[in-house]
Automatic annotation (TrEMBL):
Belongs to the UbiA prenyltransferase family. It comes from Adineta ricciae. Pathway: Cofactor biosynthesis; ubiquinone biosynthesis. This is 4-hydroxybenzoate polyprenyltransferase, mitochondrial. It is an enzyme of class 2 (transferase). InterPro entries: HB_polyprenyltransferase-like (IPR006370), Prenyltransferase (IPR039653), UbiA_prenyltransferase (IPR000537), UbiA_prenylTrfase_CS (IPR030470), UbiA_sf (IPR044878). Keywords: Isoprene biosynthesis, Membrane, Mitochondrion, Mitochondrion inner membrane, Transferase, Transmembrane, Transmembrane helix, Ubiquinone biosynthesis. The keyword Transmembrane applies. It holds the Pfam family UbiA. The chain crosses the membrane at residues 335-352, 357-376. PANTHER family: 4-HYDROXYBENZOATE POLYPRENYLTRANSFERASE, MITOCHONDRIAL (PTHR11048:SF28), PRENYLTRANSFERASES (PTHR11048). One of its GO terms (molecular function) is 4-hydroxybenzoate polyprenyltransferase activity. It catalyses: all-trans-nonaprenyl diphosphate + 4-hydroxybenzoate = 4-hydroxy-3-(all-trans-nonaprenyl)benzoate + diphosphate; all-trans-decaprenyl diphosphate + 4-hydroxybenzoate = 4-hydroxy-3-(all-trans-decaprenyl)benzoate + diphosphate; an all-trans-polyprenyl diphosphate + 4-hydroxybenzoate = a 4-hydroxy-3-(all-trans-polyprenyl)benzoate + diphosphate.
């Protein structure tokens, strides 16, 4: 118990005695909920009996839920974060009817996870609305919480981070100056000079000695030839890219234990994946058409080879975005909001290879947006303890497979000055691939703990780990054909994880 905390003074009145006892119980519940790393079994035993089946939970991000989702959210919070909580003031007040009441807790949450870097006292207010079930024993009253609300400012916590907080304050200052910058905004997107690397060694092969990667014929080859450039611009003839975008969103939906009524989400996400992947590829080719003409693998792309004009590319982009928006508005409001925000990284990512050796990281941020949307679309609420670890796992997966993919272009990238993790890691690439695989599996385990997954899920992840290990051991990073085949095999990786989730759900 916090040394600053004191209970209300007692009196001989039974109601005051009841209120005092309720305050003691709410203090215990609050400490268990917000001093994290409490074992899940202890939460089940000492907190959940006080939670109503129809409980509504609200914080600055979301509102809604029931007892099952409340349990998932709280356990995920304990698995993901490390906080301590100091109670400054706690007050219980019974309503006039004598059967319901409200408890207000005022205190400070202290983030301990990164205390060696920084800590920030997050002012927090919690409101519990409850109904009394039995007060025959005033020393142990029975009640249930039917509404639990948190009030805090996550932005305040971020502002407290050294460096990042300063940057955010500067960004806010710049935003306020936008009217003054309008005339110069185009210069922000101009291409800077790109310099050749001088300190990275790669095995350079002449274009005549490179392996030609054959792609299987597809159903799109039967379309009128006038449509072929649009098919290739959207990469509809190369479905692996769509799979690695769709699957993280499918994991997210499956983790919500969707019923038959919500299985339509898989269809909507599948259609949305094809449309938004096509839009993203179109944006990428619009930005990179000059670079693509200088790279052996990409010089035949429709915009680079001038099979389509820039104007035609823009019209096709608008068409795909419009269709994608029609799919998006079929989802609930929180998911629509997250989906609209995805356009920011979609437009920014193609520029990253000009300025950083980590474009694969930004690709992961972009491609895996579906992990933030799937669980939210299925539950109608945002659960950070579930979607963020899943998002980080998916980013690690993208870093794994796209670093392998980037090794196909490393010679051309080196010559024209485009950056990638393949060039950055060089001969240490396989060491980094192992690290990304470990990061992916670690976050998937965290997700499993957050949603109370069962043993088949974790056993399946062992198989996923073996599959990733085999990829890393067998891939020849100096052979284009080997890199392509390994990249394609990541569709199997994603399907294995989806199977782990489905089977794990069956054992719940």
């Amino acid at each position: 118990m916090s040394e600053n905390f004191t209970f209300r003074p007692k009196s001989s009145a039974n109601q005051v005695k009841l209120v005092n006892q309720l305050e003691r119980q709410f203090h215990t519940i609050t400490q268990l909920l917000y001093t994290t790393n409490v074992p899940g079994a202890l939460l089940d035993r000492q907190v959940l009996p006080y939670i109503a089946d129809d409980v509504i939970f609200k914080d600055p991000w979301q509102e809604g839920g029931d007892k099952k989702l409340y349990r998932i959210g709280m356990k995920g919070f304990h698995n993901m974060f490390h906080f301590t909580f100091d109670t400054f003031q706690l007050n219980v007040k019974l309503n006039d009817d004598g059967t319901t009441g409200r408890c207000i807790v005022d205190g400070i949450m202290n983030l301990q996870q990164f205390s060696w870097i920084y800590t920030y006292p997050l002012r927090s207010i919690f409101v519990y609305e409850f109904r009394l079930l039995n007060t025959d024993n005033i020393d142990d009253p029975k009640f249930e919480i039917f509404r639990h609300e948190e009030m805090w400012s996550f932005a305040d916590m971020i502002d407290g981070i050294p460096g990042i907080g300063w940057i955010l304050n500067k960004i806010r200052s710049i935003i306020l100056m936008i009217p003054l910058l309008r005339q110069n905004v185009c210069s922000l997107f101009s291409r800077s000079a790109i310099f050749r690397l001088s300190n990275i060694s790669v095995c350079h092969l002449s274009s005549t000695k490179r392996n030609t990667i054959s792609r299987p014929r597809s159903v799109f080859d039967r379309l009128p030839k006038s449509l072929h450039p649009y098919v290739r611009l959207s990469r509809l003839d190369k479905p692996t890219g769509s799979w690695v975008i769709f699957l993280p969103g499918a994991w997210s939906i499956a983790l919500a234990e969707t019923s038959l009524n919500t299985l339509s989400l898989f269809g909507l996400f599948g259609i949305g994946t094809i449309l938004m992947r096509g839009a993203g590829c179109t944006i990428n080719d619009l930005w990179d058409r000059e670079y693509d003409r200088r790279v052996e693998r990409t010089k035949g792309r429709p915009l680079a080879s001038r099979q389509l004009s820039t104007r035609q590319g823009i019209i096709w982009l608008v068409t795909q975005l419009s269709l994608g928006f029609l799919v998006l508005i079929q989802l609930n409001l929180p998911t629509i909001g997250i989906g609209v925000l995805s356009l920011i990284p979609v437009f920014i990512y193609p520029l990253m290879k000009r300025y950083t050796y980590w474009p694969q990281f930004f690709l992961g941020v972009t491609l895996n947006w579906g992990t933030l949307m799937g669980f939210t679309a299925a539950t109608g609420q945002i659960y950070p303890a579930v979607i963020f670890p899943l998002y980080f796992a998916s980013i690690c997966w993208t870093l794994h497979y796209d670093t392998i993919y980037a090794h196909q272009d490393k010679q051309d990238d080196l010559l024209i000055g485009v950056k990638s993790t393949a060039l950055l890691f060089g001969k240490d690439s396989k060491l980094w691939l192992r690290a990304f695989s470990v990061g992916m599996l670690t976050h998937l385990i965290t997700v499993g703990l957050s949603v109370d997954q069962t043993w088949p899920y974790y056993l399946g992840l062992v198989g996923v780990g073996c599959h990733l290990w085999r990829q890393i051991e067998n891939v020849n990073l100096h052979d284009d054909q080997s890199c392509w085949k390994t990249f394609v095999s990541n569709r199997t990786t994603g399907l294995m994880i989806l199977a782990c989730i489905f089977v794990g759900n069956l054992f719940k």
